[in-house]
Amino acid sequence: MTMGSGRDCLHYRMRGSGEPVGSWGHEYVRHLAAEVGQEYHEVEKANLAVHEPLVREIVKHHMAHNAEAEAVDLLMEFERLDILVEFVDEHAQPRVCLYLLS
After folding, report:
1. pTM surpassing 0.70?
2. More confident residue, 22 or 3
């Protein structure tokens, strides 16, 4: 999936039906995470509350699908690594710690 100049995925996700973020597949979730990051840095830096529920849903999806590095990267981009504790279980903990240490 190629990143366009707009944020169509984010736009339609925020106005959509609210179905699970993973129902459209992993590439959609990755693209959506990238658009959320862009939006945060360019427009809403002071207001994480607008996107925090979506960020939490994306992190939950990544953690459930063995994409711990992507979850950590997204939370680091939002400067909210404290949220990670909610989603790490005993199976993901070694991988998350190794990624954070590297």
Report:
1. yes
2. 22
